[in-house]
Amino acid sequence: MFLPLFSTAMAATLDVGAGHPYPTLADAFAAATSGDVIALHAGDHELDGDHTLLVDNLTVRGEGRDVTVVRAPVGSTCTVALAGAGTLEMAGLDLGCDLQASQFAKAVVSEVTLGQSALWWLVDRATFTDVGADPEFIDVGRVDVSALVGSLTAINYNRSLALRMSGSRFVDGGRLWVQALGPVGRVEVHDSWFCGAAASEIRVDQAGSVLVEGNRFVGNGGGSVFSAAGALELFGPPSVPLHVTGNVFYGNDHEENPSLHADYTLLLDHNIFARSTSTGAFPDEVGTLAAPARADHNLWFDLAGNAIASGGPGGNTVEPVGAHMVLADPMFVNPSLDCDVADFGLLPGSPAIDAGHPSQLDADGTARDIGL
Question: How open is the CA angle 250-254-260, to the nearest 5 degrees?
Fold first, then answer.
């Protein structure tokens, strides 16, 4: 069950669907006030035209994946513009309309399947304000953007204070792009799949700190020259720590950097880099403008070129990859470029098992594994 994050004495639940007080979603939008919950019951909810809601702290909640907001008629304009403040929560539905939000201090999106560009509008148009010493996150959890096509940016998150994403899925198209006009507090991406994009699946242009942990980057890049890497790009001033830990990079492709490009303070540990390809003459799996601040306890296997190089194109210096590196087949359960069937868990006897830093322990009390 999904619950609203805020409530007031005047808040109400607006039930939408056949046999309910609000027959259509448009009826509920017209009646919604601050703090309300719009509850979508099972079925297709048709929506047409532009709808602007000047309300605060709004929840739009479905009963699950059998709840769909569809454009009616097909191909028509369907935009929901949210111009209130406070918190927006959207959960448990398939969204077929574009969503544009402004002024919200926090947005929570979970268990939502997106039609083309829907969530892009949500975060691209949003303006977020400083809410204190502990900044709020945009929490994008378990978002499935496999419906996005081509190289369309799925999430272009602009002027944000902080971003946290976990358990999400980007397949064959959309990507995450954090493009701040000024430094943001934190960017964190955890436990997500990034598969088959023509350009880098994640690009962070500025941030106060970056943590990319426990993700799978599979078959990205396609030799694209429009990005600095096939899977992951991190740009930032020298003082910004860019921490990439416990990820799997498999089968990525690029002229220069199949898996990762990062500026300056790169911390690289417990990752697996495997089966990359490149059309370039001098590929580097990881490229940086400066030597990594830390690079160790990573596994490297069947790469297109060097593991790590710094200095930029034309002046690269091959960097050591750490005294505790592993150069061997990681022995995945089912490695595949098809993310619907791939399993990047480790088979018994994998050289990545217990090969991490001994001060970081897994649940069984042994040294941390390299990889997920």
Answer: 60
What is each CA distance from 5 to 36, 90, 113, 194, in whole angstroms? 10, 11, 21, 29
pLDDT in tens, 155-174: 444 444 566 777 777 776 55
Residue 204, pLDDT > 70, answer yes
- Kindly report the pTM of this predicted structure: 0.73
267 Cβ partners below 8 Å, 6+ apart? Answer: 241, 242, 243, 244, 245, 292, 293, 294, 295
CA angle in degrees (0–180, nearest 5) for 112-113-114: 110
CA 74 to chain centre: 29
DSSP, residue by residue, 284-316: EEEEESS--SEEES-EEES-SSEEEEES-TTS-
289-333 pLDDT tens trace: 888 989 999 999 999 989 999 986 666 788 888 899 999 999 999
Q: Which amino acid is at 127?
A: T
First to last CA, the chain: 29
Q: How deeply is 132 buried, as exposed, middle or buried, from its count of CB atoms within 10 A (0-12, 13-18, 19+)?
A: exposed
The 10 Å Cβ neighbour count of residue 131 is: 12
Residue ranges covered by each domain of the chain = 128-346
In whole angstroms, give the CA distance from residue 78 to residue 80: 7
